[in-house]
Write a structure and sequence with these properties.
Layout: E1 2-7, E2 10-15, H1 22-29, E3 48-51, E4 54-57, E5 70-72, H2 81-92, H3 102-115, H4 121-128, H5 139-153
Parallel strand pairs: 1-5
Antiparallel strand pairs: 1-2, 3-4, 3-5
Length: 163
């Protein structure tokens, strides 16, 4: 079946199998390497993409379901200043070690901050609960989201707290 959608702002049109997941289409057909295969049951968040601005696990979505929709992956970050700010905060707060989970966290955090530029710690934790990290732990990740929030408000010299 033919599916047409937008990927990182560019139109895509291709033939897909009816049972083909968006994860498989992105990673193996379109070479989008930020989308990782982790659990395949929607629990780890390593395959997270933004679908019409909302974070979704691409392993649970069929490509046939994204016709005429907009998909953003971390590769599209150059087009989105907010995602670029989140990435910078991840680097500055040492919120990434192996990097496997980082794209999912960065996209999820950017969606949260787009909707709520000043989230509380509890709101950050709730937004990120669908993403798992086995290396870094969550404090540096939460601090990176808080730092991005402060950058968006224009706060200089934000120092992360270690809750």
């Amino acid at each position: 079946m033919r599916v047409e959608f937008y990927l990182n702002g560019a139109p895509v049109s291709l033939e897909v199998e009816p049972n083909e997941t968006l994860l498989d289409t992105l990673r193996y057909r379109l070479n989008i390497t930020s989308v990782k295969r982790g659990c395949e049951v929607g629990e780890c968040g390593s395959c997270t993409v933004l679908l019409d601005g909302k974070p979704v696990t691409s392993c649970l979505i069929l490509t046939a379901q994204v016709s005429d929709r907009n998909i953003i992956t971390l590769e599209g970050a150059a087009q989105d200043e907010l995602i670029a700010n989140v990435q910078r905060a991840f680097l500055e707060n040492f919120a990434s070690q192996c990097g496997f989970c980082t794209p999912g966290f960065a996209l999820t955090a950017s969606a949260l901050l787009k909707e709520n530029p000043e989230p509380s710690d509890d709101q950050i934790k709730t937004a990120l609960e669908g993403n798992l990290c086995r290396c870094t732990g969550y404090i540096p990740i939460i601090n990176a989201v808080k730092k991005t929030s402060h950058v968006l408000k224009g706060v200089k010299n934000y120092e992360a707290t270690h809750d």
